[in-house]
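Example record for the data management plan.
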Amino acid sequence: MFCIDLDELKTLSNNNILFSYNRFNLFSFFDKDHSKNKTGTTKRKVLEYIRSKGIKVSNDCRVLLITMPRIAGYIFNPVSFYFIFDENSQAVCAIAEVSNTYREMKPYLIQKIVNNRFKLRTPKHFYVSPFSSLNLEFDFDFALPENLLDIKINEFEGEKKILISSVLGEAKQFNSRRLTWITIKYPLLTFKVMFLIHWHALKLKLKGLKHYPKKDNPQLQKDLIR
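Corresponding structural encoding:
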């Protein structure tokens, strides 16, 4: 996953032959891939969203995005993470931008910060998996992205934890040499992510796990971005 300061996208594109901003490359970042709004920069769209929720920030605030880039033109992000800091470098809020294989998105705004960790437990109300009820709750718990990435997203049915997931990582320098290395180590990773999602779904179906059709309970699919 890339950790990108959204104010530095043009600089990263100019300084790295394998990475481009809003144009095709082996690795690329397109504003239209986030928030599903075709116009405006990703930072502007993020600020518009949090301001619509009553959070006051200046245009000079800093927005970090942890996400998968397009790889050879293809993108799929199960979840991306935005971290918003004010002009004094104080954490203001975070957003978990969750996606499904229907190319729908739902942002979850997280404002509670406890011991430098963002925390939110909230109704899911989003069709993420055919093996996961819409009535479950997401439990977000993640640290500020410094040298180490530490993100936990679990699912609860009442007080019963039914799914445990985590993303852990160590910060590496963003440069052309590193991009060359990850091209070799993780070839066509976004394609692999999509393949593995469907492969594991097939295995769960063959095991007889309960299935929840997307057409059921449309009233529980709320605040989606298509």
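Summary line stored alongside the record: The chain has a mean pLDDT of 92.
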